[in-house]
Design brief:
By secondary structure, the protein is mostly helical. It has helices spanning 4-9, 22-38, 54-60, 72-113, 115-122, 128-131, 133-141, 148-156, 164-180. The relative contact order is 0.04.
């Protein structure tokens, strides 16, 4: 009886294909010489990926393995459609980014234009924001960047009258308490 080892050691080769043709021998010798010339020195690392490109990955996944390959024309048509979709997607993302940037700039501009109202009415007496609804709405729209630090200081306050040194001591105690948990 034949064992698996003896079967794997002796391959079955049809008689008609036992001898390589002249073209096969020539292509083998060319590939051997070209691979020898393409060898890199020891320790050389290629600077580009040797795997398939993104386009090749998409192209290889356009058809299931169990189906015959697509005709070249159909594959090219589908790749052109894919490129078109990707281009329109990039353009839509760019339009969206520009619209967002434009809205942000418009908002910042309107906040900065309200600076004179802030300086005349809110900064001199901070508590007026609680009384006047239009000033409260102005507050919710945003504080001009020039006044943000001072306005936040007024809004948050320092009801405990902490000095900077006392604040640092409390902060270090809080960090120690959090790290010990």
């Amino acid at each position: 009886p034949a064992t698996p080892r003896s079967l794997s050691a002796t391959p079955i080769v049809p008689v008609s294909s036992a001898a390589p043709s002249a073209s096969e021998t020539h292509s083998r010798s060319n590939s051997a010489s070209s691979s020898a010339s393409q060898q890199k020195p020891f320790g050389h690392r290629p600077n580009r990926s040797t795997g398939p490109s993104a386009l090749e990955k998409v192209r290889s996944q356009t058809r299931p393995v169990f189906l015959p390959p697509k005709p070249r024309e159909e594959d090219d048509k589908h790749m052109a459609a894919w490129r078109s979709m990707m281009r329109s997607s990039r353009m839509a993302a760019e339009r969206k980014r520009k619209a967002l940037q434009e809205r942000r700039l418009t908002r910042e501009k309107s906040i900065e234009e309200s600076l004179h109202i802030w300086e005349k009415e809110i900064v001199p007496d901070w508590r007026v924001v609680y009384k006047n609804t239009s000033l409260r709405k102005l507050w919710w729209k945003g504080i001009p960047s020039k006044l943000r630090a001072s306005m936040w200081e007024c809004a948050v306050g320092n009801s405990l009258s902490l000095s900077k040194d006392h604040y640092r001591i409390c902060l270090s105690r809080a960090k120690k308490a959090l790290s010990s948990k």
